[in-house]
Amino acid sequence: MAAAGAEARRAWCVPCLVSLDTLQELCRKEKLTCKSIGITKRNLNNYEVEYLCDYKVVKDMEYYLVKWKGWPDSTNTWEPLQNLKCPLLLQQFSNDKHNYLSQVKKGKAISLKDNNKALKPAIAEYIVKKAKQRIALQRWQDELNRRKNHKGMIFVENTVDLEGPPSDFYYINEYKPAPGISLVNEATFGCSCTDCFFEKCCPAEAGVLLAYNKNQQIKIPPGTPIYECNSRCQCGPDCPNRIVQKGTQYSLCIFRTSNGCGWGVKTLVKIKRMSFVMEYVGEVITSEEAERRGQLYDNKGITYLFDLDYESDEFTVDAARYGNVSHFVNHSCDPNLQVFNVFIDNLDTRLPRIALFSTRTINAGEELTFDYQMKGSGDISSDSVDHSPAKKRVRTVCKCGAVTCRGYLN
Ligand SMILES: [Zn+2]
Ligand SMILES: [Zn+2]
Ligand SMILES: [Zn+2]
Ligand SMILES: [Zn+2]
Hints:
CATH 2.40.50.40; Beta-clip-like; 4-stranded mixed beta sheet; binds zinc ion; chromosome; Post-SET_dom; Histone-lysine N-methyltransferase; S-adenosyl-L-methionine binding
């Protein structure tokens, strides 16, 4: 690895799918240095605790089994407690142990009295799984934040079970059109206002009202389209008619729900009522393709299909594999987010962008939800509910818990 010359490097320039830690482990195992992944002669033999795997007491001395960062499992060693300078990891170890014990206690009435000399293998196994999960989720969180192009940060949290990052999900910031579908990215019209709030601006040109008030809150009723200023407009980035295009401003957290709803999304900051929260993005496919996929998907997969039925019924957004944070937002029959159709650089009414706005003040820590049955049309009249055979076939029980719950997701 260290010897690769410039030519060889060019010839072998491929993206690496292995994590940095794994590469470092490989290097150390082979006793190789490699500057580009941070293994030098000086730190080839460095040891940093990555996590603690097990615990035992020998001759009144406490020991922990240590996994070393950047070293393979085969080099794990037992270290006396007094040598360990990692109070957070020790705390984590103890928390995980207690969580495991309290979970098991709920299930069965077995004696969990430790003999205090060693941990039961099942407990150590759980602690290692939890440590590995934490690393995987942290890595995923880093990746999401590298990919996102908006201001708000994305956090990931699972204090509920051992579920790790989804294996078949790819973060995107905007629509990913399927082959054959073209999204026009340049508007045909732009305004030349000196003040878009007071003048006859882009919305007027489209025959609708300006969607926002001076506080960047939406003031038009659901079902009404939003026409924002675009790349042809003379106004600058501070124009009051540029909101959705600036992306999510709030820090959000993808978290594991404790009521069996899988992943959910909560806000980490207070969100004012009628504010733009996030866009719903995914693959843009034809409705025929959506029909086909709908038959292949299980109940969960079907809930990611979002018909763009603002004016026609030609296209559907599929966020099952490609999406942003909205992929993880759960359904509620009494939601705090509301769907709006948005036109910015693409004025094709068959292909609106979908924006989610808060319907009320949402406090920090509250879960975000929207009504899956409102996908597309923005009102809940009976014909907005999709009755196509593919999607009606399987009904998914709703677990939203709202007083007004309709019982099913579809
Ligand atoms: Zn204007
Ligand atoms: Zn404009
Ligand atoms: Zn403007
Ligand atoms: Zn419900």
